[in-house]
């Protein structure tokens, strides 16, 4: 009797791999375009000196996020835990458990009580929403710097 296991992705690029253009890709998920814009504006084109420039990819639906993750090349995800239907916690856990556990993700939560759920989901960082630009930028820089080493 042979054991069957879930297929494993062997073609996924390393988490902090720079693209051909020298940029690192960050995927931002929220159904709210203002939240996505706020995240991009908070971090900017480069999270910190010495780190590669960021190529931002924004998605508004769970299907779009999964499509982008499966395409590969994503260094980090920033997920809105408050998105309706399927929030960032569930999506982050799904990506981590079923697609690519090497992609770290930051969860934006509106309620401090949800931090334990964020830990359960495997989030590398949990930050309060509305976004504090300094905290978000520092978290992104720390995670990208860790992945670069």
UniProtKB/TrEMBL annotation:
Every Response regulatory domain range: 25-144
Modified residues annotated as 4-aspartylphosphate in this record: 80
GO BP, one annotated term: phosphorelay signal transduction system
InterPro entries named among the record's database cross-references: CheY-like_superfamily, Sig_transdc_resp-reg_receiver
Region Disordered: start-end pairs: 1-33
SUPFAM superfamilies reported in the protein's UniProt record: CheY-like (SSF52172)
Keywords in alphabetical order: Phosphoprotein
Protein name according to UniProt: Response regulatory domain-containing protein
Species lineage: Bacteria, Bacillati, Actinomycetota, Actinomycetes, Actinomycetales
């Amino acid at each position: 009797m042979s054991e069957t296991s879930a297929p494993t992705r062997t073609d996924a690029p390393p988490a902090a791999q720079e693209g051909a253009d020298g940029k690192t890709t960050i995927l931002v998920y929220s159904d709210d375009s203002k939240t996505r814009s706020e995240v991009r504006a908070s971090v900017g084109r480069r999270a910190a000196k010495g780190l590669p420039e960021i190529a931002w990819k924004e998605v508004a639906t769970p299907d779009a996020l999964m499509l982008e993750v499966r395409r590969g090349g994503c260094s980090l995800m920033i997920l809105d835990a408050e998105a309706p239907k399927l929030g960032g916690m569930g999506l982050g856990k799904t990506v981590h458990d079923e697609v690519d556990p090497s992609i770290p993700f930051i969860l934006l939560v509106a309620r401090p009580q949800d931090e334990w759920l964020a830990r359960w989901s495997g989030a590398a960082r949990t930050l309060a929403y509305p976004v504090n630009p300094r905290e978000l930028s520092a978290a992104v820089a720390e995670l990208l710097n860790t992945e670069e080493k």
